[in-house]
Amino acid sequence: MFRLVVGVSLSLTVCASTGAAPAAATGNRRFAYDAYRRLINMFGDVVMGVDHERFEHAFDQIKSRFGVTLDTEVPAEGLVELVALYKQVYREQVGSEFPQNPMKQLELAIEAVFKSWNADRAISYRRLSGIQGLRGTAVNVQAMVYGNMGDDSGTGVAFTRNPSTGDNTFYGEFLVNAQGEDVVAGIRTPRPVDEMTGWNKKVHAQLLKIKNKLEKHYRDMQDIEFTIERGRLFMLQTRTGKRT
Question: pTM score, two decimals?
Answer without folding.
Answer: 0.81
